[in-house]
Amino acid sequence: VLCRLINSLHPRGQAPVAKIQASAMAFKQMEQISQFLQAAERYGIAATDIFQTVDLWEGKNMACVQRTLMNLGSLAVAKGDGLFVGDPNWFPKKSQENRRVFSEDKLKEGQSVIGLQMGTNRGASQAGMTGYGMPRQIL
What we know:
Blueprint: H1 2-8, H2 26-43, H3 53-57, H4 62-79, H5 104-111
GO molecular function, one term: actin filament binding
InterPro entries: Calponin-like (IPR050606), Calponin_repeat (IPR000557), CH_dom (IPR001715), CH_dom_sf (IPR036872), SM22_calponin (IPR003096)
Family: Belongs to the calponin family.
């Protein structure tokens, strides 16, 4: 199923998994999982986001398997090449670059503004402060 999934995200004739085998032998099934993982990495999934073959085969780390499939879905939706068929709302939306270009005048104008992040000292005083190390008087 995973190999058919990754093949469906590629144009016809460019499927990364050429031969999908339906074998009951454990070694062949694990080989198919490994082929899916290699194809997913070539598709663009980061190596740190890909589960290990034994995670799925032994069923011990299904959260990692789910994370890989969610990342694959998000990437397929973000590519927007028309090969993803399904509801794009199932997957978290990948962030995309939103480059902005400012004129030289606008950049110079920003250098003279003190932003609110800098804070202000209006209303600041040391009234009521005691020396460090002195106990607080609670009456």
